[in-house]
Amino acid sequence: MIITTIETIPGMKIKAHCGLVSGSTVRAKNVFQDFGAGLKNVVGGELKSYTTLLTEAREEAIARMVEQAKRLKANAIINVRLATSSVTTGAAEVYAYGTAVEVVKPESAV
Amino acid sequence: MLDIIVLLITLAITYAIGSYIEKRHFKKIQQREIALIKKPIISYGAKKWNTKREIKKIEMVTGEVVISGDYFKTFVAGLKNFFGGRLTTFESIMDRARREAILRMREKARNAHIIVNARIEAIMLDCDSPEANAIPKCAVIAYGTAVTYAPQK
What we know:
The structure holds 2 protein chains of 2 kinds.
Chain A: E1 2-3, E2 13-28, H1 31-43, E3 45-46, H2 48-71, E4 76-86, E5 91-104
Parallel strand pairs in A: 1-4
Antiparallel strand pairs in A: 2-5, 4-5
Chain B: H1 2-35, E1 41-42, E2 55-68, H2 71-83, H3 88-108, E3 114-125, E4 137-149
Parallel strand pairs in B: 1-3
Antiparallel strand pairs in B: 2-4, 3-4
Helix pairs in contact in B: 1-2, 1-3
């Protein structure tokens, strides 16, 4: 599965559009990690546990989007965007969306 | 009276530690930015980008970071909010978070030649939390398409 943030895939030809695919996830950390982050919060700096939370959320959102694209028999997703929103204290939503397409190498195009 | 003393001590401690962490972070960001200069080249908003060169690998790269404000910054911003104007204490947090996220993305794509259509998505967490003294944190995701050319013959 090729994923790009641009409207084309250089070196490939778009054969068919399969429509919009998206994936979203809301994740939260457990109470102990929230407590540790709360202490760090007072003095500032990077909150490592929240950074991993964001990484996991992003990976899961993209994985869900890819799964949906596979069901549509697409082999690439173009023009992917990520959006985040804060749902409640200590939780983050990551939403990934893009256009599923079927691409072929120019030689094999009919 | 005791409340005021406790508040002043908390402000002094968080100011000292917070500004130390921030200074160290800014120094590190600057060093990494110099080390990574033009490697890879990065472009923001080239949606129809294309190339005639042969491509070895094309993939989406991301970099994410959560930077927290501190007690002192939140307190000062709360006061300043009353009069309006620049909230410099939060400006530096946003700046740090965005630059850090971009750097992480570029470090992941260190072997790529170019990152096209990079975008930055930022959100403040806990900025309107019902808890009285919640300290806002800035979460940033930077993402783009990393392109690696095939070696030229």
